[in-house]
Specification:
The structure is a homotetramer. The first copy, chain A, is of the alpha/beta class. Chain A has a single domain (2-194), classed as Flavodoxin domain (Rossmann fold). In chain A, 35% of the residues lie in helices and 17% in strands. Chain A is built from 5 helices and 6 strands. The first copy, chain A, has helices at 18-32, 62-71, 88-97, 128-141, 172-194, and strands spanning 2-7, 36-41, 74-82, 85-86, 116-122, 151-154. In chain A, strands 1, 2, 3, 4, 5 and 6 form a 6-stranded mixed sheet that branches. Chain A is globular and about 50 Å long.
């Protein structure tokens, strides 16, 4: 079983990414369940704006990432919060995933059927529930299944501050929720692997 | 296998509900899969504002509906669109469902685990995707699993109009999408019944 | 100049409302600017589900509140956060306000033109920015003007807790932001009173 | 008086942009009111991911656009709809605008105070109201004033299709609403120019 984490931080490597750090925590939990885990920092891959799986210009990093999504059983969308909303980088990846709607597996089943997904959010302020709503809806639109409570987040409030996940002494709820997230992702993925949803009537 | 449709129309019976009509269409498809289907029009049940499962005042209709949710394998949230957003009546039901977060099944598994849900939206104007986002996130928060593409909708645009689902001659996409919705709901519910997600580590 | 605060707490009087307490703070600041301030706790007024200004059933509390909205220069929408979203009670009031779209002032100007609005949010968890987005969009839809930064909020995180605005020792940012909210509301209302937006070409 | 249109189409020039076409329509109406209008297609300007006004890497197109925003009295955010949500390109611009929160005019007033903004949305499907909500909230966060009904949109439904604004024979509501949008933008901008909101107490 394979899991892919798409990290939508705005900061290119090697800058520290709080979002990447929380993704690493949850990825380690999935690995303990025997899942093969890969992390991608999107901003390092020059993903072009667009809505197709193929390259839209020279150097477009998306086609290689599309192949990783296709190969994964579990996809986790991780993003910082800006103005209470998902960041533009993860949004750019979701737009490229829009193309999955017209792609199918060998037997005609929509490409994302029987794949499960989850969301990780960090921020120095309010917004996680809404970020989860936006990313869940977009992923469900293209066929991913979102298991109950397959998310975790870290932020603080009220108001903006310099607080951040990595240096916070309030990580306990975030980690406990992340442990449960890994648990439901792996078990839901196993259920759909054992008893898959077949091709729908309108396929 | 049991399915419960919660219809959040603002109009009490016996007024015609376009939302109820589209819910009936999808319910009939679930019945064809052998599912036992029940429809509830929330506004007829005097649901009090609140966030607990128990009655919050005399005549509060929620406790009886809570029992139906607990007994269901599939719950469908159906609502009209007002100002591009979910209606207040379905929102009131979601708030009562917040209490599921601290309720468990006999073995300690969170109450909504291994239940699946979907969304039905009607409107005379734009808003369905966002309504799906709001209801999906709230349902996922309390533990429901949202299978890929387990929704359908009807609306028109651009701008408001007198058009409505029941009298429209453009129902084909809505019905085809509703057929697929019933298909994924029943198959995902079967997968989670056969190979259920067990109690998570933070339970 | 008149300001109306619509408090969408789910709790009937005389229960303590954190949302009402923060609304009172901002109302007091408006009063210091010479504004006549009125607070309404919606749940005490038996507002029926619906989308018209007139009573939709016996005892419907909305028509009296509609008259207060029409008489106000400043309307503040105050609500608790549930599941990261606006509460159902304030949503019910927004739906009734939908009717303003087809009502006009004596000279044919849309009813809500030259009225300004703001938002107050409380919660024990994440969600304020999204609540502001939902209520701002609905109010703008029907014609209210939303001045820059005309909002304040209080919540905590990460994760749910028993923390609340009234007993918190972290009120400073919330109050400072509320001071600015009162300032921009009163100044923007004065600007639109002095140089009002006239009837639009599509009226 | 100056108006700046930021077009968030995903398609680089010289591809046809429906969003740009509707922005041109509203821009022409503003010009009839005597406003000096400039249109920018963001994707042509190599805007880097980030949250500051200064260049974050070589060739970053944002600093020049930031200067245009600062010089404008009216800013219109125009975007296509993807999965019912704002596109990633306009989101990237909003993130750069986050920096306005700590910038001020010569007299200490927050940079975006007394600037007004509006939103234009196109799409082949549902989503405009939510796009307006997201962009309105982000713009209000940093200090822009959003006048009542300062938006217009074009889309179709139910379901996706090949329909588009430019070739549609249903442009009338969109244009009439766009006429009103230009009207309220120019009149609200004049009101705030004549009677500006001064520096707030927390500045």
């Amino acid at each position: 079983m394979r899991a892919l984490f798409l990290n939508g931080t705005l900061k290119p490597s090697p800058e520290t990414s709080n979002t990447g750090a929380l993704a690493a925590y949850v990825g380690d939990r999935l690995a303990e369940h025997g899942v093969e885990v890969e992390h991608v920092r999107l901003v390092d891959h020059d993903v072009a704006p667009g809505v197709v799986s193929e390259a839209v210009r020279d150097g477009d990093g998306w086609p290689a990432l599309h192949a990783k999504v296709v190969a994964a059983d579990i996809v986790v969308f991780a993003t910082p919060t800006w103005m209470g909303q998902p960041g533009s980088v993860i949004k750019g990846a979701m737009e490229r995933l829009d193309a999955l709607m017209s792609e199918t597996q060998d037997d005609g089943t929509p490409m994302a059927y029987n794949k499960v997904c989850g969301v990780i959010v960090t921020g120095n302020e309010d917004g996680a529930h809404h970020v989860i709503a936006e990313l869940a809806q977009a992923a469900i639109d293209v066929g991913f299944t979102f298991p109950g409570q397959a998310w975790t987040y870290w932020n603080k409030g009220p108001g903006p501050s310099d607080a951040e996940y990595l240096t916070s002494d309030e990580q306990e709820w975030t980690h406990s929720t992340g442990d449960a997230m890994a648990h439901v992702l792996v078990h839901a993925a196993r259920a759909l692997a054992a008893v898959p949803v077949p091709k729908p009537p309108n396929a």
